[in-house]
Amino acid sequence: MSPTSSLFSPHAPRRLLPLLLPLRLSSSAAAAAPAMPRRRDRTQPPPQEWKPKAAEGASSSSTTASAAAEIAAPVERLTLASPAAARAGTGAAQLWVPRGYSTSTTNASVASSPSSSSSVADAGHGVDSVKLSKIIKGAPDFAVDNNTFIEAKIRATFYPKFENEKSDQETHKVFNDAAPPNIAIIFMCQVTLKHSGSLFMYAGHLGGAYAKNSFGNVYTAVGVFVLGRLFREAWGKDAAKMQAEFNDFLEKNHICISMELVTAVLGDHGQRPKDDYVVITAVTELGHGKPKFYSTAEGIYSRDPYCGRKSATSFFAAYDALCEEGTATPVCKALDEIADISVPGSKDHVKVQGEILEGLVARIVSRESSSQMEEVLRNFPQPMLDSVDSDLGPSLRDICAANRSDEKQQIKALLENVGASMCPDHSDWFGNNGLDGQSRNADRSVVTKFLQAHPTDYATKKLQEMIRLMKQRHFPATFKCYWNYHKIDSLSNDNLYYKMVIHVHSDSVFRRYQQEMRRNQGLWPLYRGFFIDVNLFKKNNKKAAELSKDGDTLLKNINGALDSSSSAVDGLADEDSNLMVKLKFLTYKIRTFLIRNGLSTLFKDGPSAYRTYYLRQMKNWGTSAGKQKELSKMLDEWAVYIRRKYGNKSLSSSTYLSEAEPFLEQYAKRSPANQALIGAAGNLVQTENFLAILDSERDEEGDLQSERGAAPSSPTSAPVDVVPKAEGLIVFFPGKIENMCGTTKAAAVPVIPDSEGTDSNPFSLEALAVFMFRVLQRVNHPGNLDKTSPNAGYVLLMFYHLYDGKSRREFENELYERFGSVVKMPLLKSDRTPLPGDVKGILDEGISLFRLHQSRHGRAEPSKGSYANEWAQWEQRLRKTLFGHADYLNSIQVPFDFAVKEVLEQLKAVAKGDLKTPDTVKRKFGNIIFAAVRLTPSDILGVLQKVGERNTEVNSFINGIKLEDSLNKAHVTLAHKRAHGVAAVASYGIHQNQQVPVTFNALYYSEKMAALEVQLGTVNGEQINSRNEWPHSTLWTAPGVAPKEANTLPQLASEGKAKRVPIDPPITISGVVDFY
Known about the structure:
Elements: E1 23-25, E2 51-52, H1 61-77, H2 83-88, H3 115-118, H4 129-138, E3 148-158, H5 168-178, H6 183-186, E4 187-194, E5 198-202, H7 204-207, E6 209-210, H8 218-235, H9 239-253, E7 255-262, E8 277-285, E9 292-293, H10 296-299, E10 306-307, H11 309-322, H12 328-338, E11 341-343, H13 349-352, E12 359-366, H14 368-379, H15 396-402, H16 407-418, H17 427-430, H18 445-452, E13 454-455, H19 458-472, E14 477-483, E15 495-504, H20 508-519, E16 528-538, H21 541-575, E17 580-584, H22 586-596, H23 599-605, H24 607-621, H25 625-646, H26 657-668, H27 672-678, H28 703-707, E18 729-732, H29 738-744, E19 747-753, H30 765-775, H31 792-800, H32 808-819, E20 823-825, H33 837-857, H34 868-884, H35 886-891, H36 896-912, E21 930-935, H37 937-950, H38 952-960, H39 963-966, E22 970-976, H40 977-980, H41 982-986, E23 995-1005, E24 1009-1016, E25 1018-1019, E26 1022-1023, E27 1032-1037, H42 1049-1054, E28 1059-1075
Parallel strand pairs: 3-13, 18-19, 19-20
Antiparallel strand pairs: 1-11, 2-11, 3-16, 4-10, 4-12, 5-6, 5-7, 7-8, 8-9, 12-17, 14-15, 15-16, 21-22, 21-28, 23-24, 23-28, 24-27, 25-26
Helix pairs in contact: 1-14, 8-9, 8-16, 11-12, 23-24, 24-25, 26-27, 30-31, 33-34, 37-38
């Protein structure tokens, strides 16, 4: 096999080096570090390719051999045979080709086979344009009958929605709850840097290039160009051959590669990158079954610190310590120290993007992947780059700057510059055979026919099942269909080819779909970036009968087999998206969420509304009080600055950094505190001359829309213990009341109906039915929400959806944290019978209609939208159904007087401070400064009492400083962030909330301070040591004396300036490891 004949060959490890991100692994084995390649900027990267930590014991040879054997199969499966080997019939054992897929024999060498570059581009010319036009125009009349079949193949997809819609505290809990209890033995935590860019998926020149919800536009053209240019960086003069071979491999094996497209030409995210590049985030095999996402060892594609349970908890602790001030350099430094093995990637975040780091992605993977990855890293070291002295041609920014007339001109220039070996077919962008890109839209009936036709295989059946359910539930999603121009020469009246795009409009759909998956475990996941090739065709009666019979047999054989074995076969490599969380840094969120996403509010509604917006966001994130104060000052100044400069003309969100970055840079220069708040600023990349020309009404990638309004939930607030009479008590039903309480010093007490709720709403359908029933009986309501209102049902549904997306627990926890107490009003009897079927049916119908209306018309009145007739009919049937079950609805309610009595009793308890706030299993974070062992003051006082009984001077000292009144809390510092580093603090994460023995050996005291000398014990057999030179617990300091001064007590005692009183025998109590 020639050196350039394979992308993934174990014999010739040519590479997609520019696509790699730094990698971190856990391991028990060490290996010699091979030399790193010299970068194009002539700088030498770090001296080690991967960094193993000291192992507790050497791994056995059998373990290594086993790991090598396990990794051999996926590596060999990714091998591409050279053209000569293919013709000779050699290398076939190394090339895995899914059954049923075409195995093209196109020569990978563009130079030796010129036709390979143009054959695809010329596709479609064999079909007469007039005939083709007739086929397309007649497609809506295609009738589905018993001889009609459908074949669907997923062409591109990414992981299901990340777990990032909750606050960071909640995602920690989701991660820990999802992880198996024996995770340290079986599973590991994998952490990846989140580069700030756009989702880009590539399935080869025939499979297509895709953005998040679209294809055939400037987003995908930019992606293809950047990917192609990286081949030139990696392979130099051999890039064209490798590009063609790469495309052929993806097509033969039906593989899609997902990437983060990081570029300055497509609009602003958190920081304009210094260079344009892509990094691989997923490699997906799209066979006849469910998509298989390769593990890191199989794909080698991302920056992943692997770690066991110990490092996983340390990781979360490190994130908590850095989340409000972390930038790329300190974050990577901390991860390097925490991870067991560290591998820097070929794209350094600081060099190519900058210091502003969007976040981290954490997921659970199998422990075997560690040994597999070590084997890969040893066998396939990073080689030298071939392009150091190569002419790479014009850059992305050069091309965009030179082609400014319109979007099509830019697309054409990009595709022509990337070359025919990378992109020989431009039909997705410009059409084919006289049909332009605008003619590619297919009629809406395609989806209906897709669901009606006979499926030819298992994948098609499962996709029909998914789409049918989404349509039945009226999920806010569209199924857009386009003509597949790659198949234009195969079109006939009875053989139609389409591309289907599944576009999910709301993040809540992913949560609701997951609920459906829990009820029906045979459902396939709903992925992000979902593109399907569809073939709708007919066969004659005989062929149709044979195909139908074969299809039924196939479905029966695989229907149970694949689903029943999927958990064993796929494992975490396929299902790890369910254990994947995304955690963002405040320095990034300042720019995107608080500045960029707040622009519309600032310019439309003014500074006051903008202040309400950003305060709400920070509360939702659980931002520390200190940072909230600092940010409020900075954002208020930003609002005045940008409004003064732009007046009433809003700043564009796609170029907002042109104004925000200089402002932040100047603000950061004022003080070190401001610099820490901003993170990094300056060196702004000017994009005005090369920004891609985009349709202003389109956000094809989707990040901007989804990030806005996707605020996490779980604000924090101190609970109210007792309500002073002078400050008052406001009793309210949930709404915006916090500002009123802040200005009047009143305590707010939310009153909510007691209800079990659902997975996605804090109120049950029974509660909704009762509320509607009550409204439809009342008269003369001041707001006209009574029996005379023609839209009463719609209004109640609007109220019901105010809390959509939150479970009952999440809803109550948020109220407890914001207000300190909750009063629950009894509503439904516990022994009630289930909701009648027709009542549930009318409510489900109304909910679905509301979501359709909201998706299309927003908050417009129902009578003014396209569903006006449906609303009118539903309102009438609602009344008929509810009043038809009046006896049932009356019988399930608790008596009104009982409800009033219960509410009054709870209000009295709140006013007296007797109502205990439950533990919401959340904590404040983001301002972790140190790790410590928490001690109970009463235990400390007990120790001192015993010492005082033996020593009268100690007794007099303790009584003199009135320690019993002043000692409210005590701890033993283990590590401090500023003195010992983030990693040192985070290393205690595995022991958090664990009890540890604390032994007191001596008491030190002087006129200005007092402390107990301590010796710490073990937790689960592991010794707990303090990083302080002198482990102690500070008891008291005089006014004006900082607690850290207690560290000098041993020195003062040696100088006779303090006293040391031994405690003999030593006294031991119990403490708890925690963070502060």
